[in-house]
Amino acid sequence: MTVAFVLHRADGAPLLTSFRRAAFGKNDPFARHREIAWEGPDSMIAGRTSFIGELDMASFPHIETIVVVEGELTLEAAGEAPLVLGPHAGAVIGAGTALRVLAESRVRFVFCAAACDKPTKRGLVPLRADANFKPSASLPAEVLLGPVPQCRSDNVFTDDGAAYLAGTWDSTPYHRIVRAHRMNEFMHLLAGSVRFAAPDGSVLSLGAGDALFVPQGAPIGWESSERVAKFYVVQSVQASIEQN
């Protein structure tokens, strides 16, 4: 199993991740632009998109979290003020949302989307680096290779129909053993750097501005030596805001 799929590097370094051009369902508004790095049996995908133009949708067909990495994207949900996303800004689009998307020049963004036949939350929800953080569960002592970290989260979007949660999280430094990841997780790092270890001893180093996806069950470790903050999406059979 591939441990992690790197979706974007802020420094422009080449990616080892393979992408394929494909739509996410028959009504995917980004069908001609989407590049998928991972697609799971639980109807979740992650990847990147390059887009220019305008789209109008009476009902957005799935849940999608977008984080812009280059350019500017405007999202307008019915009855709400326009949300303008520049680099390293993000938002969650609920399934069923009436939405207009506008990019006057080329914009690039990473995404994590999930099918949802019976959505429980509609609308457009921004992700914020200056989140309303609240203390969240730390890690059990038996998986740590050092002090217990102090973790905080701000979960701003939950759709029970897809067990899909999104928000912002941060933590003090910590070192964790390689273990099976407990959920599908998309991450866009906002601050700090992380060394992700694989079972073969190799290490993937990522920092602020980078994005990746870790499938549920993938064996992976974590080591950070400074505060780390990230936008996240998690999905599991039992939805949880606890971070890995």
From TrEMBL:
What is the species listed in this Swiss-Prot or TrEMBL entry? Paraburkholderia hospita
Question: What Pfam families does the record tag this protein with?
Answer: Cupin_3 (PF05899)
Listed InterPro entries: RmlC-like_jellyroll, RmlC_Cupin_sf, UGlyAH_Cupin_dom
Q: Which segments constitute the (S)-ureidoglycine aminohydrolase cupin domain?
A: 166-232
Record's protein name? (S)-ureidoglycine aminohydrolase cupin domain-containing protein
Q: Domain of life, per the record?
A: Bacteria
